[in-house]
Design goal:
- This protein is of the alpha+beta class and 310 residues long.
- It folds into three domains: 144 residues; 58 residues; 43 residues, no CATH class.
- 15% of the residues lie in helices and 42% in strands.
- It has five helices and 18 strands.
- Strands 4-12-2-1-15 form a five-stranded mixed β-sheet, covered by helices on one side. Strands 9-8-7-6-10 form a five-stranded antiparallel β-sheet.
- A hairpin with a 2-residue loop joins β6 and β7.
- α4 runs antiparallel to α5.
- The longest helix has 16 residues.
- The termini are far apart.
Length: 310
């Protein structure tokens, strides 16, 4: 069951339950107010035997949404013009023709004393032939490329969001990991919903008095709470907000890694290697010179600003 848990500081935790069948992907669009978008995206969690095809997507605040806009007064002409080059399937009568849309060819048609603006849709079919179809003959126009259809869906969704310009949608696509019915749950938190209020009722019945407490809840979200279990909590969870756009330079501690006092000159005295003495004591004449050659005594002196080796 879908549920909403409201805290006394105005924070709400939402649980949405969905059932997916036959491995069919499910796209979920959650309406979120712009002032609560960061909390919702940061706290969102998906539970169940499902996978996300991509991270949650949404329209950022202040973004340019002019990528694709559909003219509602002339949809076919507008899409055929703006999406020329995309692969389509056109159904005309009992025939379906596939190819790439090339654009439109406008012409005027006379109907009595009136002049009507009409157009043909130009299409390069799979054989490479250029064919034209009158607008009145087209029964269906399908954009077969998934990326193009995704952009059309985004344009329609942005047009719907203009009804409530202070809100946006967080979109998730869920894919079940097994056959049959799979139940999944999406949980997220939203702040600044408005605190619930308490109301008391005192009733007297046959010499007995009864005190009843009622919670007054205001739904300030952009969706109806139908078939939703609402619970209220008198506690206040830890909640804060931070400005991610503000630049805050952080001071660092200063550590001097170079000493303020230079070291004196270092002198190495002559030394007789211990392994040379041991070789001579053993009488190993053949190896002693070789060892002595590698470990011949040397004197090395270092002075400030000079270097001498002897």
């Amino acid at each position: 069951m879908n549920s909403v848990k409201l805290y006394s500081n105005g924070t709400g935790v939402f649980d949405r339950v969905y059932t997916i069948r036959n491995r069919e992907p499910l796209t979920v669009s959650i309406p979120i107010r712009n002032d609560s978008l960061d909390e919702a995206v940061a706290s969102i969690g998906v539970f169940g035997d499902v996978s996300l095809t991509e991270p949650p997507s949404y329209t950022p605040l202040g973004s340019d949404t002019s990528t694709l806009e559909i003219n509602p007064d002339d949809v076919t002409r507008d899409l055929a013009t703006k999406l020329r080059g995309a692969r389509v399937a056109i159904k005309v009568g009992g025939e379906t023709v596939s190819g790439r849309i090339a654009g439109i060819q406008a012409f005027n048609e006379t109907a009595g004393e009136h002049l009507i603006e009409r157009f043909h849709v130009a299409l390069f079919d799979d054989s490479g032939a250029l064919r034209t179809f009158a607008d009145r003959e087209i029964a269906a126009l399908t954009f077969t490329e998934e990326s193009v259809q995704t952009e059309i869906d985004k344009a329609l969704q942005r047009a719907f969001e203009t009804i409530k310009p202070n809100s946006t949608f967080v979109n998730l696509t869920l894919v079940p990991n097994r056959d049959g019915e799979v139940e999944t749950r999406i949980q997220y938190a939203v702040a600044q919903l408005g605190a619930w209020k308490i109301s008391y009722r005192l009733r007297g019945l046959e010499g007995k008095w009864e005190l009843e407490g009622q919670a007054v809840v205001d739904n300030s979200t952009d969706e109806p709470w139908n078939d939703v279990l609402v619970s209220v909590v008198s506690g206040s969870p830890i909640s804060f907000a931070t400005d991610l756009a503000e630049i805050r330079p952080v001071r660092r501690s200063r550590v001097n890694v170079v000493s303020d006092q230079a070291l004196d000159a270092v002198m190495l005295e002559d030394a007789e290697p211990q392994f040379l003495l041991e070789a001579e004591e053993r009488g190993n004449v053949a190896s002693a010179p070789a060892i002595a050659g590698r470990a011949a005594p040397c004197r090395e002196e270092h002075w400030p600003g000079t270097q001498q080796e002897v």
